[in-house]
Amino acid sequence: MPLHYTDQLQLLKDLLEDHKFDGFGTISEYEQIERLVKSLMANEQVDEQTKFILQEIYRYGQNGKYLRNAAEHVENYQNELTEWVDQIGHFF
């Protein structure tokens, strides 16, 4: 059963929050972030402002899965993670 739009947003928010508070992410989490963002970008309910934010999150996921130091990657994105979590919270 496919996830509903709001469920996908909630899952994305949860993953980003986990990265922010845990200080690292796994390769499978970064891959899941990419899949969620791709699915949300294809959804007609998503407006252009949200798509812009999703593109930034996609780059975060893409870059994160190729780095050896996951903690450093998350540390470099702390401000963005806080901003993205807040913005996603306003979407639903």
TrEMBL record:
It comes from the Bacteria. Pfam families: YtzH (PF14165). This is YtzH-like family protein. It comes from Fervidibacillus albus. The lineage of its organism: Bacteria, Bacillati, Bacillota, Bacilli, Bacillales.
